[in-house]
Amino acid sequence: MEKVLKPMSGYLALVICLVLFIASVFFFITGAGSENIANIVLAGVCFVAFFFFIKGLMIIQPNHSRVLNFFGKYVGTVKDNGLFFINPLYSSQKMSLRSENLQGQTLKVNDKMGNPIEIAVVMVWQVGDTYKAAFDVERYSDFVKMQSEAAVRHLAMSFPYDNLEDDHAPITLREGGDKINSILEQELTDRLSKAGIVIQEARISHLAYASEIAGAMLQRQQATAIVAARTKIVEGAVGMVDLALKKLSEGNIVELDDERKAAMVSNLMVVLCGEKAAQPILNAGTLYN
After folding, report:
1. Is 94 exposed, middle or buried (0-12, 13-18, 19+ CB in 10 A)?
2. 45, burial (CB in 10 Å: exposed 0-12, middle 13-18, buried 19+)
3. For the chain, percent of residues with pLDDT exceeding 90
4. Is residue 5 domain-resident?
5. Which residues contact 125 (CB under 8 A, 6 or more apart)?
6. Which of 42, 112, 195, 256 has the most neighbouring CB atoms within 10 Å?
7. In what residue span(s) does the Band domain sit (predicted)?
8. How many domains does the chain divide into?
9. 84: Cβ contacts below 8 Å, ≥ 6 apart
């Protein structure tokens, strides 16, 4: 589990380092000039002390951290920014806490109905638990890439691309919108939590049928749209014909027998459902001649 440390300020240690460095240079110069062994020894001691203190100085930039270890044992994580002094025997690992974008590559997978599709996502993530990111996985950045790809594949295989083949599908990849994105975020969170990664946002950035079936699927979508439009037109035309017959009957405008009604219905349906404008025909006789 992550443990946050509050180390001491490093400004005093920096002053001590400067003093030790100046002292080592002074004793070395004076000892070398007079061949005084004691001054040379003091110069060596001051330099070793300088090296020891300078190794304990640590600068942490904003939204960065340092994971500290003491001979293989986790000590804690420093998340404050500035100049600090820690035990010089600690080993440290730099780790960024900034939000990062991951533009996933376009993957070719099969949806729930077995249709090959192309899908890609973009996600925003950051390190939330430095202990897990440093010690529970080998390289957390590679882990994020691989697990995000696995999550996208699982999402694509769990839902159909659209509802053309599955009319009862409650959610589809094309029309799911925020619901699909929420499911994707939860999938990524479950997979990446073991590495201490926090998912801030995940969205599908590319979604399409694979190139080998894109043409056929487009024709099917066009046919479905034409059938739906025709169905709507026929429903409207039937309503208009029914209304016309009722108005003629209620107003006693003309008396029509069944055969004339059938002819009128036929003519009205042709006019209302036809794609081209009707061509008027002048009938000089009667319906029967």
Report:
1. exposed
2. middle
3. 31
4. no
5. 99, 100, 102, 144, 188, 192, 197, 198, 199, 200
6. 195
7. 55-221
8. 3
9. 7, 8, 9, 10, 57, 58, 59, 60, 78
What are the tens digits of pLDDT across the range 32-41?
655 667 778 8
Domain with 33 in it: 10-95
**Alpha carbons 241 and 122: distance in angstroms, whole number:** 53
Q: Is residue 278 part of a domain?
A: no
Residue whose structure tokens are 């459902």: 273
| pTM tops 0.85, yes or no | no
* Cβ 51 vs Cβ 21: under 8 Å: no
SS3 116: strand
CB 159 within 8 A of CB 96: no
Which residue bears the tokens 């062994």?
37
3-state DSSP call for residue 44? helix
List, for residues 65-83, the tens digit of each pLDDT value.
Answer: 999 999 989 999 999 999 9
Q: What CA–CA distance (Å, rounded) separates 199 from 93? A: 23
Sheet harboring 8-9: ordered strands across?
Answer: 8-9, 82-85, 57-60
Q: Which two tokens stand for residue 107?
A: 């993957």
Same domain, 167 and 108: yes
How far apart are the C-alpha atoms of 211 and 47, rounded to whole Å? 69
Q: How many Cβ atoms are within 10 Å of 39's Cβ, its own excluded?
A: 18
CB atoms within 10 A of CB 55: 14
Q: Is 44 among the domain residues?
A: yes
Which residues lie across from 59 on neighbouring strands?
Answer: 83
Structure tokens at 16: 């001590």
Q: Which residues contact 189 (CB under 8 A, 6 or more apart)?
A: 198, 199
CB 50 within 8 A of CB 13: no
